Amino acid sequence: MVSLNPITQSQSLFNKTHFQVSPCHSLSTDNFQSIFIPKRVSFQFQFPLSLRIVNMPMKAAAVVSATTAEKPKKRYPGEAKGFVEEMRFVAMKLHTREQAKEGEKEVEKPEEQAVPKWEPSVEGYLRFLVDSKLVYDTLESIVEKPAYPFYAEFKNTGLERSEKLAKDLEWFKKQGYAIPEPSSPGTNYAQCLKELSEKDPQAFICHFYNIYFAHTAGGRMIGKKVSEKILNKKELEFYKWDGDLSQLLQNVRDKLNKVAESWTREEKNYCLEETEKSFKYSGEILRLILS
Ligand code: HEM
């Protein structure tokens, strides 16, 4: 069992090669610290001290350590249920209240407003679908030729979206729409995912989880609302799964939980900290709907 001793953990976090600049660092995150512990959300206050003290001067950290040495080990939110629940907890806090009731983030960008308030365009939605397809193509080819053997677990989960999106784009073409080339939100994210998958498996898994699971939750709601507004309620293939979706999701949750069982606490925290970046990249693609 991994030690949760605050001092040891904070020191080992600093020492990890992981904390060199991440391959897809170029996205305009506020600063390194905001990736490490998101400033604008309050979940850090519910995290064990071991995670919170990483930004404290070491002198202060030592005091915390001395006063907490005898306290029982704290659990991370969601930990008892498995690592997916931990990832979900962090993701939900990064929603705005308008997006989801568990959300805590302030609305800062157009796509963070309530979906019913959106004014989508068909051309913008097509740009979103094209860039989403590039992201799913990338994820699905990564697990087909896994850089780390455990990625192979995530082949043919039934959550794949690439073929469904190809059918939808074909439908738009038949309706007379020109299909655009992928734009920078999609190409940047695809490049980032490729690099992470080769060098940074914990970060990659965070993106993998968020992309597939977000689409089955908020993504579906977006699809419904947008279709009501601009597609005469046409139900796209992107929002249809073969088989029982809740069972498919549970199968993937089980596999993710199993994979993460062999991770150290530091690796788990590192994966959780990637969530903010996942929101930023996906948010840029979502914003295309409003372009
Ligand atoms: C307009 C944008 C979005 C809306 C309206 C939205 C809305 C929602 C809602 C309503 C849920 C379900 C909450 C529940 O279980 O009670 C959810 C879950 C979730 N969302 Fe979002 N979301 C949005 C964007 C995102 C983005 C950008 C990401 C990350 C890339 C994300 C990741 C997730 C994840 C991981 C879950 C948990 C899914 C699960 O429990 O299976 N969401 N979202």
UniProtKB/TrEMBL annotation:
<protein>
    <recommendedName>
        <fullName>heme oxygenase (biliverdin-producing)</fullName>
        <ecNumber>1.14.14.18</ecNumber>
    </recommendedName>
</protein>
<dbReference type="InterPro" id="IPR016053">
    <property type="entry name" value="Haem_Oase-like"/>
</dbReference>
<dbReference type="Pfam" id="PF01126">
    <property type="entry name" value="Heme_oxygenase"/>
</dbReference>
<comment type="similarity">
    <text>Belongs to the heme oxygenase family.</text>
</comment>
<dbReference type="InterPro" id="IPR002051">
    <property type="entry name" value="Haem_Oase"/>
</dbReference>
<keyword id="KW-0560">Oxidoreductase</keyword>
<keyword id="KW-0934">Plastid</keyword>
<keyword id="KW-0150">Chloroplast</keyword>
<dbReference type="InterPro" id="IPR016084">
    <property type="entry name" value="Haem_Oase-like_multi-hlx"/>
</dbReference>
<keyword id="KW-0408">Iron</keyword>
<dbReference type="InterPro" id="IPR016951">
    <property type="entry name" value="Haem_Oase_decyc_pln"/>
</dbReference>
<keyword id="KW-0479">Metal-binding</keyword>
<keyword id="KW-0602">Photosynthesis</keyword>
<keyword id="KW-0809">Transit peptide</keyword>
<keyword id="KW-0349">Heme</keyword>
